[in-house]
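Please describe what follows:
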Amino acid sequence: KAVVSVYSFLDLTGQRATADNMALFSTAVTQGADSFLIDALLAAGNGKWFLVAERGDLDALTRERQLIISTRNTYDGEGANKLEPLLFSGLIFSGGIISYDVNLSSGGIGARYLGIGVRNQYRVDEVVVALRATLVQTGQILLSVIVSKSVYSASTGFDTFRFTENGTELVEIETGIARNESATYATRSAIEAAVYAIIIQGIEDDLWDY
């Protein structure tokens, strides 16, 4: 297995969640994309391609190892069992979510006849991620890919109205349903596609072979 590290995979979009009637400070995309990248690397080739070294909680890991060493030396003396050395990686995977574009395209269709109407609407957003692999020995960027994923939203509705009581009263009924693809799911799909693309690019460039 190739030993790799992931230090961070940040939201670089600067985008905030949108709302029609209030100001929101929530981000438009997930802030935990590094977890998706680590999961994709661990799952690649049914877990047979990459060995991922812990780097996100390296401070906590180091402190815990120091605690183990101190405890063993205190109770077992100099003959205490030694800890295995930490893994060091040959490649660092890095990058981030570089774009989240809202409402790239939208539209719909509707019709009304004798007070009965139906309508369908859609909207398309897009998330873009960048992923690169850097050789630790030299700092050279060996591989780099940019992948985009569309985020789809669609809604359908039905409404009807009728005049009653000789045209003096109006009864109106409206119903509808909307389905929005999760931006988080789209981000995860884009990251997984980026991992796949960088593996294929590495095979084509004879950097590795599986």
About this structure: The chain has a mean pLDDT of 83. The first strand starts at residue 2 and ends at 6.
